[in-house]
Design goal:
Elements lengths: L1 H48 L12 H37 L14 H9 L10 H7 L3 H38 L3 H10 L1 H41 L1
Helix pairs in contact: 1-2, 3-7, 5-7
Length: 235
């Protein structure tokens, strides 16, 4: 019955392909949603800062108009924060779903980047044909895997820190060029409000770290693909 077995094998492949494609799509959607977080944050802050409740001055219903403008200003600001929270939960939800794990793991979202590091290190239990990165992880025993995750954690956070420094340096130089103020003066102003800047830079480091965790499987597949093509050409 060679014909029957061939048909059965074909059906199995057809069943595997949509699931594998769905998983890749989910990881891509998670990355896209995470990239939207700074966009929503900036837009919400800009929209909120553009509204001045004192516009109501000089109008007969000053108190009511002032209250409405203040309400709109706060709604835009806190609405953007709520949207960011929803996006963050969706990103974690897609990662958990991508790995076919229990939704109980979504509680790790409350731990921010540390919780996401745990989610990113979970084994992929999908029944679909694994990709190169999943096969790479499955070949490790638990000791090697633990060492790999710890090393990845250290490297990712160092890269995130360096990305924040690079971004800050470029922003200072851009501000210096556009305003004509020297870099030393700009740094002096930032040092005067170092607490605020330190908080912002810490948030940037956490964002870059999560982004690198999301990109890790994509980067691995890209490098594996390039190496495979190189070895094929060499042979």
């Amino acid at each position: 019955m060679p014909g029957g077995s061939a048909k059965g094998e074909c059906k199995v492949r057809l069943l595997k392909l949509p699931d594998n494609g769905m998983i890749k799509k989910q990881s891509g959607v998670a990355l896209f949603l995470f990239l939207l977080i700074p966009v929503i944050t900036v837009l919400g802050g800009v929209a909120s800062s553009m509204i001045n409740p004192e516009w109501a001055a000089g109008h007969p219903d000053y108190a009511r108009n002032f209250h409405l403008l203040s309400l709109l200003k706060n709604m835009l600001f806190f609405g953007s924060l709520a949207a960011v929270g929803v996006l963050w939960l969706l990103v974690c939800f897609l990662v958990v779903r991508y790995k076919k794990r229990s939704y109980v793991w979504l509680f790790m979202a409350a731990l921010g980047p540390l919780g996401f590091a745990v989610l990113a290190s979970l084994n992929d239990r999908t029944a679909a044909e694994p990709d190169s990165y999943t096969r790479f992880l499955r070949k490790m025993n638990w000791i090697v895997r633990a060492g790999y995750e710890v090393l990845s954690f250290l490297i990712i956070w160092e890269l995130a820190w360096q990305a924040m420094i690079l971004k800050s340096t470029l922003m200072v130089r851009y501000e210096s060029i556009t305003t004509g103020v020297s870099i030393a003066q700009i740094n002096a102003v930032r040092d005067a409000s170092s607490g605020m800047w330190a908080f912002g830079e810490g948030m940037e480091v956490m964002y870059f770290a999560i982004l690198l965790y999301l990109l890790r499987p994509f980067l691995f597949r890209l490098v594996a693909s390039v190496l495979a093509r190189g070895s094929t050409k060499a042979s």
